[in-house]
């Protein structure tokens, strides 16, 4: 069993209701430092709702979300977040570089030169250097998705939360994103939702199925419910 000092996120008896429907029911979950949590489940089962509650972007109808640092409860954690692309207004007049740099909004100790260097490094990582000055409306869906990934990782977060990171990506960059995620997993906690689990499952140490409740699975093919422990 992990020690108490390894716990970083805790959900206790979390439920979520709206429009008279219960999206999540009495969820209990502990995420430990260094975990790679892969989450799958049916459409409408509550996967994105769960992530947004964990990030405190949604307040649950009941229950509690807590963050911890070395066993001590804290108000915030250094989290990077890649949302689903459809929550982004592509008509907003902002360049790709500005989008990526916005991931450093709370790191006020960085100079302009350091921010510029970080942005350049991340754009190279996601293979978008030549698109740095384009507005997001000029980008393809896959390019914007890669830019949003850059925004999520530029702060070198201790926790990286990814909601359907493979959406809109071509097969060439899909292989690259596996490399990026695998590298980040060596030094950070990752929580990832995806319908395409074949490669991701090999990297994850925990597999959750979310369908209003949470079922943690230990089988090789964890996305098939009947094969779970």
Helix amount: 25-40%
Q: How far apart lie the N and C ends?
A: 18 Å
Rough shape?
globular
- Output the number of helix runs: 6
Low-confidence stretches: 222-229
In percent terms, what proportion of residues is strand? 25-35%
User: What structural class do the secondary elements suggest?
Assistant: alpha/beta
Write up this protein.
By secondary structure, the chain is α/β, with parallel strands linked by helices. The chain has 6 helices and 10 strands, in the order βββαβββαααβαβαββ. The protein has helices at residues 47-54, 96-101, 112-125, 141-153, 171-184, 200-203, and strands at residues 7-18, 21-32, 36-40, 62-69, 72-74, 79-82, 159-163, 189-193, 206-211, 213-217. A 6-stranded mixed beta sheet has the order 6-7-8-3-9-10. The chain has a 4-stranded antiparallel beta sheet with strand order 2-1-4-5, with helices on one face. The longest helix has 14 residues, at 112-125. The relative contact order is 0.19.
What is this entry, summarized?
With 229 residues, this protein is α/β, with parallel strands linked by helices. Helices cover 26% and strands 28% of the residues.
